[in-house]
Amino acid sequence: MRKYYILPATCLSLGFMLLASCKGGETDKTDAKTADTVETVTPEKTVKIAPVPASPDFPDAALSIKDVSTEPVGKDSVKVTINYTVANYELKKQTEAAVSKECNNSAQGQHIHFILDNKPYTALYEPKHTFTVAVNSQHDVMSFLSRSYHESVKGKNAGILLRFAIDAKGTYKKLENPTTPMIFYSRPKGDYVGNDTKNVLLDFYVYNTTLSEAGDKVRATINGNTFMINSWEPQFIQNAPMGTMKVKLELLDKDGKAITGEHTVVERDVQLAQQEPMK
């Protein structure tokens, strides 16, 4: 059985624990999966993470980079185009069990999550993407396959990291990938409205590490409520109050100490509202 350890947020009075089961999704729009869970209590509302029902597995799904091309844009920028190869996985197809998950689902189907320098991802429904970067710069691109309801595919070949540099003359150079542990933020992302606020997908992609009770872990802090995650599986965030939801993900070592280095801490704000317009 997986265990989640709660590090309580500020307690102004004797706390209490509330166990609830909710279903939903998000509107950016997106989703998720995992195991046992507990929650901390805030004065306003209990926030918890909960298991997501098992998703269809794609053990043979593979994503690779076919080629990378560049084109100058003025004197200061370069347009970069990545062509992907997708094997044993169908982009734009609706993932089985999308309806039964009762969470936000992309009408455009399965896709690729494209994450540049750990910024919010771009969903790709075609195996090609063009973006612009500055000259004399270095970048990390994490790409991985995603189910139609935005849960990442975590097979060993389903994700790929590309580290590259653009020199002062605008020339592209592929660099050696790092060997240190990293975490790339995927979900939650964007705005969540109405029923989509009931279940908000928490999902991420780890690189150069595995998570376990005796090894590295992820500390997720959600509106001041802290959860320790020791297995690489997505979660549903439940009971989050309306308004801005702050999410922070940190990689910790086996002793519970923060792992330092590139892409070991990521923070993001998303918005939750009962109805449009978002306030």
Q: What average pLDDT do the residues reach?
A: 86
SSE pattern: EEEEEHEEEEEEEEEEEEEE
Largest sheet: 6 strands, mixed
Fourth CATH level, the homologous superfamily of the largest domain:
Immunoglobulins
Helix share bin: under 10%
Rounded to an integer, what's the Rg over CA atoms? Answer: 19 Å
CATH architecture of the largest domain: Sandwich
Which residues form runs of ≥5 with pLDDT under 50? 1-43
Shape designation = globular
Look up the CATH topology of the largest domain: Immunoglobulin-like
Overview of the molecule:
There is one protein chain. The protein is mostly beta strands. It has two domains: 5-55 and 179-273, Immunoglobulins (Immunoglobulin-like, Sandwich), CATH 2.60.40; 62-174, Immunoglobulins (Immunoglobulin-like). The chain is 1% helix and 44% strand. The chain contains one helix and 19 strands. The chain has one helix spanning 98-101; strands at residues 5-7, 39-41, 46-50, 62-73, 77-87, 111-116, 122-124, 128-134, 137-146, 159-166, 172-174, 182-187, 191-193, 200-207, 217-222, 225-229, 235-238, 243-252, 265-273. The strands form four sheets. A six-stranded mixed sheet has the order 1-16-15-18-19-13, with no helix packed on it. A hairpin with a 4-residue loop joins strand 2 and strand 3. It starts with a strand and ends in a 6-residue tail after the last strand.
